[in-house]
Amino acid sequence: MQRVIRTLGLVAMVALLVVALGVISAQDMMDNVLRTEIGPSDVPTLDPALATDSSSIQMLNETYIGLTMLDDETAATAAGIAESWDVVDNGDGTTTYVFHLREGIPWVKYNADTGAVEEVVDADGNVRYVTAHDLEYGWARTLDPMTGGEYAYVLAYEIVGGADYHFQDPEAEMTVTRDDVLFGAVDDYTFEVTTDFPKETQLSIYGMWMARPQPQWAIEESGELWIEPENFVSYGPFALWEWNHDEYISIVKNPFWPGTDNNPVPQLDGVVFNFLDSVTALAEYEAGNLDDVDDVDSASIPRIEADPTLSQELVIEDGSCSYYYGFSLSVAPMDNVHLRRAFSYAVDRQQIVDEVTQGGQTPATYFTLPSLNAAPQPDAMEELGFGIGYDPDAAVEELDIALEDMGLGSVDELPPITLLYNTSEGHRRIAEAIRDQWSDLLGIEVQLTNQDFGVYLDQRAEFPVWRAGWCFDYPDAHNFLFDVFSTTGQSDTGYSSEAFDALVEQAAAETDTARRQELYAEAEQLLVYEDAAIIPIYWYSDLELTKPYVERTYAVDNAEQYENWSLNR
User: Fold this and answer.
1) What is the pLDDT of residue 29?
2) How far apart are CA 552 and CA 569, in angstroms?
3) Closest Cα to residue 374, out of 200, 138, 243?
4) Cα torsion at 438, 442, 447, 451 (round to 10°)?
5) Helix, strand, or coil (residue 34)
6) Higher pLDDT, 17 or 301
7) What domains appear along the chain, each with residue ranges and CATH number?
8) Phi-psi category of 115—alpha, beta or left, where left has phi over 0 and alpha has psi -120 to 50?
9) pTM of the model
10) Is the pLDDT of residue 460 over 50?
11) Residue 8: band (very low, low, confident or very high) from pLDDT cuts 50, 70, 90
12) Residue 36 · residue 24 · CB < 8 Å
């Protein structure tokens, strides 16, 4: 089918990007295009149904807006493409959310030939507007077992029939159909969803990236290639501009975005995200080729803090993520809980944050970020004797038990152990330090290997130990414990515990915050000590270097809203 488009001139953009740094060559835009970085690896996907990682989500948050969105400075749930919503108690134990969508938001696409963002229209010349039918298609595609979206389970649990439908074996006969799942378009601008498990986090979940409108016609026309620049359509504050894989990706202001209180019309003309490691990014920042760096090289922090100029441009704030190492519980020798415990006890977390990361991170003895709603607090965990930290004597004791369990005479008889991390100078330094701690205390030699981010995501479950991080999608402990480590979660550890699942499910249904904290504390103890499925290492701090001519906000949820930024060079 031929697609017809109607053009609204943006500017005459000759969008040639310099390969190394992604510098815009069009002089009339250069002063109003932000140059930044998004890590050393390519963005894995722009498909809302398939995205799982922070860089993909960052791009989707600028090009696709949800029913609701988080406020970038408070993490409060705010209106997105839904102007308002009603919450209806159906009197039968179910609750229906009725969302009223904003009208007049068109689907758009950047046209490289004309140098403009253009409205997309159908074969009859009618503008394609974002409707409740696009939402219905997006939700159905996300939840479809055939789609294979790894994050779909988060949405599935919040809809009557959603889990029964989504968790079916796609290779077997499906006994639950899409019609059994209670969501859909009432009319063009009304969308409703029914849940039998109402909780305060649902409004945030219904706005997450996997629950956003998706363009059926574009996906069916281009298949897997629909996310490439020549095919990609969107509707948010920015449109996809260029994507030179493994070098940079850029977004351009969407002049058709009407703006909301939370996601206003952008003041920037565009943003170029370069794929750079932290060392190179810092060098380019200091050379004046980048305006912002949000992955500050840890080894350079003492020099930055001592520099009279850079120190004024550095901001350190509490982070939104937990840094941890995961074990693949079915991969030898990490199928032994005592060996896993020994490895965790042997990590000197304080040394890591003092001598390696050096950026104000907080050593973690459990997983959940303490700042989240209903999260266990460090003092309470300590009083309970919960969590796991650095304890050399306990590490050696657990190692001895592990060797006896496995019938081994010494650590030299252990199968080879490899630690995997995604390619990054910061991750490499942490891995080297922890490898040395394991060697010095336990006498166990661990090999290190790294992979590009997309490959690492696909293969990490095959390695005995691997680096991981989790940043909150919505500010509640449920997002850390249930969404990651329940039986259907995102951990890749292979962790499965009926006792753990029962605790986090009970906590989700509980309305008393203090009781929820107690339940999550018990779940944490199972996760990090009793079953030792992971090694909690530290809670992040956010370190940003920003030029003084950049006016910006600092997102508390690890996803910047560049529509709130401006440049005054």
Assistant:
1) 62
2) 13
3) 200
4) -40
5) strand
6) 301
7) 4-276+547-567 (3.40.190.10), 318-543 (3.10.105.10)
8) left
9) 0.90
10) yes
11) very low
12) no
Taking 60 as the threshold, does the pLDDT of residue 22 lie above it?
no
Which DSSP category does 92 fall into? S
Q: How many residues does the chain have?
A: 569
What 3 state SS string does 287-324 have? CCCCCEECCCCHHHHHHHHHCCCHHHHEEEEEEEEEEE
Q: How far apart are CA 81 and CA 84, in angstroms?
A: 9
Distance CA 341, CA 337 (A): 6
The helix/strand/coil state of 268 is coil
* Encoded amino acid at 241, one letter: W
Pick from 277, 232, 271, 226: which is nearest to 252 by CA? 271
Is the confidence at residue 329, as pLDDT, over 50?
Answer: yes
**Which pLDDT does position 26 carry in this prediction?**
43
Give, in order, the Cα–Cα distances in Å from 141 to each of 47, 186, 539: 11, 18, 34
77-131 pLDDT, tens per residue?
A: 999 999 999 999 999 999 999 999 999 999 999 999 999 999 999 999 999 999 9
Cis peptide leading into residue 333 (ω within 30°): yes
C-alpha span between 377 and 80 (Å, rounded): 32
Which uninterrupted H or E stretch holds 247? none
| Rounded-to-integer distance, Cα 96 and Cα 84, Å | 14
Per-residue pLDDT, 197: 84
Distance CA 207, CA 511 (A): 22
Contact partners, residue 93, CB within 8 Å, separation at least 6:
196
Spatial distance between the Cα atoms of 97 and 67, rounded to a whole number of angstroms = 11
Phi, then psi, of 466 in degrees rounded to 5: -150, 150
Q: Quick one: the chain helix, strand, coil %, rounded to 5?
A: 35, 25, 45
* pLDDT tens per residue across span 346-385: 999 999 999 999 999 999 999 999 999 999 999 999 999 9
Question: What burial class does residue 455 get, using C-beta atoms within 10 Å of its C-beta: 0-12 exposed, 13-18 middle, 19+ buried?
Answer: middle
Judged by average pLDDT, the poorest of 26-40, 297-311, 540-554 is: 26-40
Neighbours of 153 (CB within 10 A): 21
Q: Tell me which residue has tokens 């460090």.
A: 378
Backbone angles phi, psi at 275, to 5 degrees: -90, 100
